[in-house]
TrEMBL record, chain A:
Recorded superkingdom: Bacteria
Residues annotated as domain Beta-ketoacyl synthase-like N-terminal: 21-245
Stretches assigned to coiled coil: none
Organism of this sequence: Dyella mobilis
Protein name, UniProt field: Beta-ketoacyl synthase chain length factor
TrEMBL record, chain B:
Residues in Carrier domain copies: 1-84
Gene3D superfamilies xref list: ACP-like
Protein origin, superkingdom: Bacteria
Official protein name in the record: Acyl carrier protein
Pfam families xref list: PP-binding
PROSITE patterns, A to Z: CARRIER (PS50075)
Length: 248, 89
């Protein structure tokens, strides 16, 4: 699979500018997750009322990557989804309390893709996926499929939320909340005119069978590679070895 | 605006997560749904749940009057008051 990353934008608590991500890429640390959330004040307050933290993170990174009058297929990828919402709802069930209709209604994996569609008037295709520790790469496979069906460009968002305390023993690949949006295109024959960074992604079988998540999520390793101008990235998960390679 | 009306206006703001809206922005006679504050049917369900929890009242979901009770802060306050008095008796 060959792509051009035309534009991209990332967010994490305290990391909300190119400079901040550049500095983080040089010294990647586990940033404290203080429950900070993007303001999303490009939306009127009445339209923000049902946006969860993960929805705000998603809209914040995706918003400027789609033009006002543009229709783009949308891939939303999250391995764990909105764990704080899930935990809150299950706690209500355990306490035999009635569930909030709003919270219940939004507790599906494609809710954020739906909110994106409504708020941006997007009438095209959207996909919501959850995979394993290589959910990021699977999102790129979805994007490649949409591109091969003729989409001029695809908007991909990968977003994860720092889990509530009771889940932390089980979720070992979300050191802090983060969201990454990529505006992805196929490579034109005459790519001299195309702006953006060209990458190839390929999948090889891996005999070593890694099943411990790497300390830094794949999407954030990709952010590092973009900033640090790395030429290759090697992400292994179970029997899958994903190889990212810059195309000169 | 009486105390109960103010309380209900604040409950609407807190329950429905209305950023930048204050009690003063919801006059007792302003329609809550559609034109006016701009709430929708999901908000109505959410608000019904919050009112039942806060005031320990019951709102029958098939009640034909429900739409009327939910028109404004003033009609909601009157409804809550009537329910509470009915419970006392």
């Amino acid at each position: 699979m060959n792509f051009v990353i035309e534009q991209w934008r990332a967010w994490a608590p305290g990391l909300d500018s190119d400079e901040a991500w550049q500095a983080w890429s040089r010294h990647p640390v586990r940033v404290p997750d203080d429950d900070a959330r993007p303001a999303c004040d490009f939306l009127p307050a009445m339209q923000r009322r049902r946006l969860s933290r993960l929805a705000r993170m998603t809209l914040h990174v995706a918003w400027p990557l789609c033009a006002e009058d543009e229709q783009l297929p949308f891939v939303f990828a999250s391995r764990h989804g909105e764990t704080p919402r899930t935990y809150a709802l299950l706690s209500e069930v355990a306490d035999q309390q009635p569930l909030s209709p709003t919270q219940f209604g939004l507790s599906v994996h494609n809710a954020i893709a739906g909110q994106w569609s409504i708020l941006r008037g997007q009438r095209g295709e959207s996909v919501a996926i959850a995979g394993e520790a290589d959910t990021f790469e699977h999102a790129m496979v979805e994007a490649a499929a949409l591109l091969s069906e003729g989409a001029p460009a695809v908007l991909v968002v990968i977003a994860e939320e720092y889990p509530p305390e009771p889940y932390r023993e089980w979720i070992d690949d979300v050191p802090f909340s983060y969201a990454l949006a990529l505006r992805v295109r196929g490579i034109d024959a005459d790519h001299g005119m195309q702006t953006g960074e060209r990458w190839q992604l390929r999948l090889e079988p891996d005999d070593h069978h890694h099943d411990a998540a790497s300390e830094c999520p794949h999407a954030l390793q990709f952010v590092r590679a973009m900033h640090e101008k790395h030429g290759t990235l090697d992400h292994s998960w179970k029997a899958r070895r994903w190889i990212w390679q810059r195309i000169p | 605006m009486n105390a109960l009306q103010q309380e209900i206006a604040q409950l609407i703001i807190d329950t429905l997560n209305l950023e930048d809206v204050t009690v003063a922005d919801i006059p007792p006679d302003q329609p809550l749904f559609g034109e006016g504050l701009g709430l929708d049917s999901v908000d109505a369900l959410e608000l019904a749940l919050a009112l039942q929890k806060r005031y320990d009242i019951r709102i029958a979901s098939d009640s034909k009057d429900a739409r009327q009770h939910f028109t404004t802060v003033a009609t909601l306050a009157a409804f809550v008051q009537a329910q509470q008095e009915a419970c006392k008796n």
